Amino acid sequence: MASLLINALRKIHISTPQIRSSFLSSSAVCSNTLTITKKDWKYPPQYTKPREVWIENVDTVEEKKLGLFELHPLVYAATPRIDIIQRNVIWQRKFRWVSWAHTKTRAEVRGGGKKPWPQKGQGRARHGSIRSPLFRGGGVAHGPRSGKTHFYMLPFHLRIHGLTSTLSAKLAQDDLHVVKDLELPSDEPEYLIDLIESRNWGPSVLIVDDTDYAPRNLTVASDSLPHVNIMPVYGLNVYSMLKHDTLILTQSAAEKIEERILHYLHSDTKKQQAQFKLDQV
Fold first, then answer.
1. Could you list the residue ranges that cross the membrane (predicted)?
2. What is the pLDDT of residues 154-176, one digit of tens each?
3. Residue 65 pairs with which residues in a beta bridge?
């Protein structure tokens, strides 16, 4: 790019010593200060290059780039499958849903013990109770009964690919950010609000760390903010990622997600899942 600009300036007869020196000085500064975190994966990418993201800071409202961080393309640059994401969302909404709608059968409705009219002789249809589903005020046939669960298990590979598809979509839409740590200098909610607004992190933020114990300043600052939630890395799921506009991962959380998903993508888990297999017939 620099050589093309210099050649263009030469054609219009403009001297270029100052411009050339400025280009050289800027590249030298970048090479001296920029750090790129290279990683040796157990399963290195074969056909695509690693994705690089900036490591950001949270100790100041002003954004600072602390370096580049490599992400595995099988986890963070997979082809987003909308159908798999939808199946994960439906599964997460149904497996915890218990329907408490309840209707009474003809045996549970009050009254109707006496036969309404004789079996024969009046030319009317034969009935044994006025609480039959054929009568108004009678019982309901095949109605909903309370305590019905809609639980079922989604296949394991669809759950894994749901995570990779959602993570890849978040990264492609610039809604996934990697921070060095979660150590805030203040526990005031205003600081966290200013931080989110200055970084353009959207109206709702999901923060994921690799441990259960978040820093105190972060928990106190986000306690009164319903649109900012904190989650450990083992609880990351498709529904929560789609529910929030921006996904914030710590550097250690991004590495742990990458390690676990790569392990399951390259291993045979049929024996491990056999004891948890449900008869859904």
1. none
2. 988 999 999 999 999 999 999 99
3. 56
Answer left, alpha or beta for residue 186, where phi above 0 means left and psi between -120 and 50 means alpha: beta
Q: Determine how β-strand 246-250 pairs with β-strand 205-209.
A: parallel
With beta carbons less than 8 A apart as the criterion, state whether 29 and 35 touch: no
Do the beta carbons of residue 156 and residue 78 sit within 8 Å? no
Q: How many other C-beta atoms can be found within 10 angstroms of the C-beta atom of residue 210? A: 16
Say which residue the tokens 């392990």 belong to: 263
- CB count, 10 Å around CB of 229? 15
Phi, psi of 227 (to 5 degrees): -95, 5
CA separation for the pair 163, 142 (Å, rounded):
39
Q: What's at 151, amino acid-wise?
A: F
Whole-angstrom distance, CA of residue 194 vs CA of residue 180 = 19
Distance CA 71, CA 67 (A): 13
* pTM score above 0.70: yes
Question: What does R_g of the chain's alpha carbons equal in angstroms?
Answer: 31
Biggest CA-to-CA distance, the chain: 118
Residue 65 token pair: 């780039």
DSSP assignment, residue 74?
H
Write out pLDDT tens, residues 47-98. 888 999 999 999 999 998 989 999 999 999 999 999 999 999 999 999 889 9
Quick check: helix, strand or coil at residue 1?
coil
C-alpha distances (whole Å) from 152 to each of 31, 88, 159, 235, 267 are: 53, 12, 13, 19, 24
